[in-house]
Amino acid sequence: MSKSESNGKVEQTPSDSSSVTPARASWGRPIEFILACLGYAVGLGNVWRFPYLAYRNGGGAFLIPFFLMLVLIGLPLFFLELYVGQFTGVGPLQAFSAISPFFSGLGYCTLVVISIISIYYMIIVTWTLFYTIVSITGNLAWGSCENEFNSQFCYSGEYDQRCRENNTGAATDLTFYLRQCMSIGDICELTGFQRFDGKSCWNGTETIPWYTNVTRVLASQEYYNERVLGRGDATWESWGTIQWHLVGCLFLCWVVAFFCVIKGVQSAGKVVYFTALFPYVMLTTLLIRGVTLEGAYDGVMFYITPNWETLLDGRVWGDAASQIFYSFGVACGSLVTLASYNNFHNNCHFDAVFVSITNFLTSIYAGFAIFSVLGFQAQLMGVSVDDVAEQGPGLAFVAYPEALLQMPIPQFWSIMFFFMLFILGLGSQFAGIEAINTAIVDQWPHLRKNYWRVSWTNFF
């Protein structure tokens, strides 16, 4: 087996004894490559990480460092990886070697990184699938405080609403606390303060919100920790027991991913039409519903109101840069792999700009959908948006599900939200899986005719 150059690309030229080696596949249409890059770049980080970073780092003012980091760091690196992959026409292992033998180790490093990312990222996708299945069953148990794993400090917005609606006594400030309906005045005295009004306590010098010194744990938080993760009393010394419901969902996620990439880019190129575009349909539906809820305006204003002083804080610029790396997924070999299946003369510069700008706008767009609902939840709970806003799993599996319970037909909105997360996560996985598979079949081209076996072996 020897290497030759054709059209500027590094190609594998089979010897006479391997003349039956299948040719390297390519994208069916240029749009498939764009959608694959979009599905890879636009993922869970756009929905559960960027909105939180934006509000924490100055609201609308955060868009300035975020956009500058996009232009100065994200776009150049994104374009560079697409260029390397498209020019060499091979995966990361061979691509960096083709540039210079001195860079051979970079290809192996990127594969180690993407392997680790693919393993842990699929766990998060597993959680979204579990929540999707539970939503389909119609039993949204994360809103209940009557499960065996719930503590005495369990709190649910649904239960709190019942306390206010069923109030027939003298107390008009009932809320759900210690698994019963209590007046806020009684809670003030229980925590060592004096009654003041229906929203505050008196500590002797000033009024404070009644919930300041009260321990309350959302039912959705306990459901996530105890029912989903089975965390319990697990420690580093005692890891707890295997959660078989997650094992089953994890296996199902890998099976779905396997069938999506069973023929490499030929099958993945068809799947990305759905995985890259359908989340926008669901995100738009959630946004339309969110902005029609009471309190949505407060949530949105909390999200976009600029605080210009934050631009002087170095941490804000660091968060903007970290979000760019987190969202774009550079230095993992995935983009090199996707671009390696392009036509040599494809305009990858346009592709890089288009995907980068779309990624930027999607992050902002998702923030409106998220904070409109969080504003609604904050109003129902009688607290500030700041008290319900979280990032990462805390947003996706605790705060947002709790808010969905307060909507009409919560099962429908839960299915929409978690299925959207599942599709976003799955779409981001394709490129990583493809990078590993491509590295193998580029190294041993005769395996291309049994590509599905390579994928199946990698999954196990």
UniProtKB/TrEMBL annotation:
<feature type="transmembrane region" description="Helical">
    <location>
        <begin position="33"/>
        <end position="50"/>
    </location>
</feature>
<feature type="transmembrane region" description="Helical">
    <location>
        <begin position="105"/>
        <end position="130"/>
    </location>
</feature>
<dbReference type="GO" id="GO:0089718">
    <property type="term" value="P:amino acid import across plasma membrane"/>
</dbReference>
<feature type="transmembrane region" description="Helical">
    <location>
        <begin position="242"/>
        <end position="262"/>
    </location>
</feature>
<keyword id="KW-0472">Membrane</keyword>
<feature type="transmembrane region" description="Helical">
    <location>
        <begin position="324"/>
        <end position="341"/>
    </location>
</feature>
<feature type="binding site">
    <location>
        <position position="42"/>
    </location>
    <ligand>
        <name>Na(+)</name>
    </ligand>
</feature>
<feature type="disulfide bond">
    <location>
        <begin position="145"/>
        <end position="154"/>
    </location>
</feature>
<keyword id="KW-0812">Transmembrane</keyword>
<dbReference type="GO" id="GO:0005283">
    <property type="term" value="F:amino acid:sodium symporter activity"/>
</dbReference>
<comment type="similarity">
    <text>Belongs to the sodium:neurotransmitter symporter (SNF) (TC 2.A.22) family.</text>
</comment>
<feature type="region of interest" description="Disordered">
    <location>
        <begin position="1"/>
        <end position="22"/>
    </location>
</feature>
<feature type="transmembrane region" description="Helical">
    <location>
        <begin position="62"/>
        <end position="84"/>
    </location>
</feature>
<keyword id="KW-1015">Disulfide bond</keyword>
<dbReference type="Pfam" id="PF00209">
    <property type="entry name" value="SNF"/>
</dbReference>
<feature type="binding site">
    <location>
        <position position="424"/>
    </location>
    <ligand>
        <name>Na(+)</name>
    </ligand>
</feature>
<dbReference type="GO" id="GO:0005886">
    <property type="term" value="C:plasma membrane"/>
</dbReference>
<feature type="binding site">
    <location>
        <position position="327"/>
    </location>
    <ligand>
        <name>Na(+)</name>
    </ligand>
</feature>
<dbReference type="InterPro" id="IPR000175">
    <property type="entry name" value="Na/ntran_symport"/>
</dbReference>
<feature type="transmembrane region" description="Helical">
    <location>
        <begin position="353"/>
        <end position="376"/>
    </location>
</feature>
<dbReference type="GO" id="GO:0015179">
    <property type="term" value="F:L-amino acid transmembrane transporter activity"/>
</dbReference>
<feature type="binding site">
    <location>
        <position position="428"/>
    </location>
    <ligand>
        <name>Na(+)</name>
    </ligand>
</feature>
<keyword id="KW-0915">Sodium</keyword>
<feature type="binding site">
    <location>
        <position position="41"/>
    </location>
    <ligand>
        <name>Na(+)</name>
    </ligand>
</feature>
<protein>
    <recommendedName>
        <fullName>Transporter</fullName>
    </recommendedName>
</protein>
<feature type="transmembrane region" description="Helical">
    <location>
        <begin position="412"/>
        <end position="433"/>
    </location>
</feature>
<feature type="binding site">
    <location>
        <position position="39"/>
    </location>
    <ligand>
        <name>Na(+)</name>
    </ligand>
</feature>
<keyword id="KW-1133">Transmembrane helix</keyword>
<keyword id="KW-0769">Symport</keyword>
<feature type="transmembrane region" description="Helical">
    <location>
        <begin position="271"/>
        <end position="291"/>
    </location>
</feature>
<dbReference type="GO" id="GO:0046872">
    <property type="term" value="F:metal ion binding"/>
</dbReference>
<dbReference type="GO" id="GO:0015187">
    <property type="term" value="F:glycine transmembrane transporter activity"/>
</dbReference>
<keyword id="KW-0813">Transport</keyword>
<feature type="binding site">
    <location>
        <position position="46"/>
    </location>
    <ligand>
        <name>Na(+)</name>
    </ligand>
</feature>
<feature type="compositionally biased region" description="Polar residues">
    <location>
        <begin position="1"/>
        <end position="21"/>
    </location>
</feature>
<feature type="binding site">
    <location>
        <position position="359"/>
    </location>
    <ligand>
        <name>Na(+)</name>
    </ligand>
</feature>
<keyword id="KW-0479">Metal-binding</keyword>
